[in-house]
From TrEMBL:
Database matches in Pfam families: MOFRL (PF05161)
Name of the featured protein: Hydroxypyruvate reductase
Presence of the UniProt keyword Zinc-finger in the record: no
InterPro entries found in the cross-reference section: GK-like_C_sf, MOFRL
Annotated source species: Roseivivax lentus
Entry keywords, A to Z: Pyruvate
Record's keyword annotation contains rRNA processing: no
Residue intervals of the MOFRL domain: 2-30
Amino acid sequence: MALDNNDAHGFFAAIDGQIVTGPTLTNVNDFRAMLVLPPEWAGWS
């Protein structure tokens, strides 16, 4: 069930297979990007 819900945390917790490292103090996962296209590009292919 956990894998069907894309819940790796729940899956590994249920089988006692988690490795909890805590905060890494890196900004690896702090970056988000968003691409905004003009409306006239909506139909390009």
